[in-house]
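Example 4.3 (complexes with small molecules)
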Amino acid sequence: MSWKLLISDGLEESGIKALQNQGFIVEVKHFNPEELKINLPLYDGIIVRSATKVRADLMDLCPKLKFIARGGVGLDNIDVSHAQNRGILVINTPASSSRSVAELAMAHILCISRSLQISNRSMIDKESFIELKKRLSNSYELQGRTLLLIGMGRIGRELAKMAIGNGMHVIATDPFIERAEIAFNIAEQAFKINIKLVSLEIGLKQADYISIHSPYNGNKILDESQFLQMKKGVCIINTSRGENINEIALLQAIDSGIVRAVGLDVFENEPNINAEILKNPFISMSPHIGASTLDAQQRIAQELVDKIVTLKAEFIPL
Ligand code: 3PG
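Answer. The structure with 3-phosphoglyceric acid bound is encoded below.
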């Protein structure tokens, strides 16, 4: 029997076609939370990104639901343990978007290093050109600067390669690993580099740049006390989860001169962003687009289709 699938936050076109070719009945539609409670019980599976929340109360209304597929990494919008208890399988695509997220983090590093977010907002005419040229002549090269990676999983490792390629000194903190060797190819030459692991306290004191690559586990990673331990003039980049940083403490750290500039792809209360963050000229912003490249979305679609097809082939009804 055909399974009926709801694609709630979109899926790259090739994935939709592949699912249809495999005999799934596919509907692409974003319901609001109340509508979803009425409609999801009609489906065998749901495919989401981060916008749709699949919480316990919703699952309890859906006895037919066999799986929840997350096109992406973070599972914070899904009550995973409740799904497991109900026998609903949760799948995600942990590796498909790492490179894209790391490239966006690198883009924010380069952007804030040369204050491009200020130039882009302020260059209007000849006067602003001359004034900005003077005002923005106080930046530094990345070469020789220290980057602290908070989290040395797939994304942290990809960013480490790019930062090293830019001449940066990379250190990392990650309570889950004991060694951090990264392997990469440049101009057909293979390299292996061991990244020095440090405690968060030491890393905060040494870093010129700090980039977060950890899921949100209910505790802020950068709060008031962490900002006080940082080197004056540090730059912060967050492409992980907005909740990892206390935004009020971040704004205070910018005002007091501890933080020189910030690159944010994620925010504490998406999509309702703090107005003080939005208007701060020292913050380069993007609207949670880390995984939103065509390359990543094609890989995500392919991985999800493969997993869903296997799941159906192996499915044993209770
Ligand atoms: C993820 O967890 O994969 C990223 O945060 C991307 O989320 P998105 O698919 O909603 O863009």
